[in-house]
Write a structure and sequence with these properties.
By secondary structure, this protein is mainly alpha-helical. The chain has one domain. The chain is 40% helix and 10% strand. The chain has 4 helices and 2 strands; from the N terminus they run H-E-H-H-E-H. It has helices at residues 3-11, 32-35, 47-66, 94-102; strands spanning 17-21, 85-89. It has a two-stranded antiparallel sheet with strand order 1-2. The chain is globular. It starts with a helix and ends with a helix.
C-alpha cells in the first residue's frame, strides 16, 4: 500500500474495510488467479485458502453493510482461519498498516 491510500482512507466516510493479503499480487482477488494460472501470486496462504478468504471477507462485509447483520469477528481482527490476512476497519488507521509494511 502507498501513502496516497493512507491519506484517502482518512477522509473516506462510511463503512470500509481493508484486507491485506500478505504476499499476494494486486490482481489476486480477481478472476486472474484462474485465467492466468501461476501468473498471479495468491499470497502466503496459497490459492485455495486465499480465494476462500476473499469470499469470506467480502461476504461478511456485505452482510453487515447491506443486510444490517452484526459485524462478524472475521472483520474485526486477526483470524486463525486466515493467518495471511491483515484487517483494518474504519475505526483504525490504514497508515499503521502501511508503516508496518515499510518496516519489513
Amino acid at each position: 500500500m502507498e501513502q496516497e491510500e493512507c491519506g484517502l482512507w482518512d477522509v473516506l466516510i462510511g463503512p470500509r474495510l481493508a484486507a491485506n493479503f500478505l504476499g499476494a499480487d494486486h490482481m489476486t482477488p480477481t478472476d486472474a488467479v484462474w485465467i492466468a494460472k501461476d501468473a498471479v501470486a495468491p499470497g502466503s496462504m496459497g490459492l485455495d485458502k486465499t480465494v476462500a478468504a476473499v469470499r469470506s471477507y467480502l461476504g461478511a462485509f456485505l452482510d453487515a453493510n447491506l443486510q444490517g447483520k452484526p459485524w462478524d469477528a472475521l472483520l474485526l481482527g486477526p483470524s486463525p482461519d486466515f493467518p495471511g490476512v491483515e484487517v483494518v476497519t474504519q475505526n483504525h488507521s490504514l497508515c499503521s498498516l502501511i508503516s508496518a509494511e515499510g518496516s519489513e
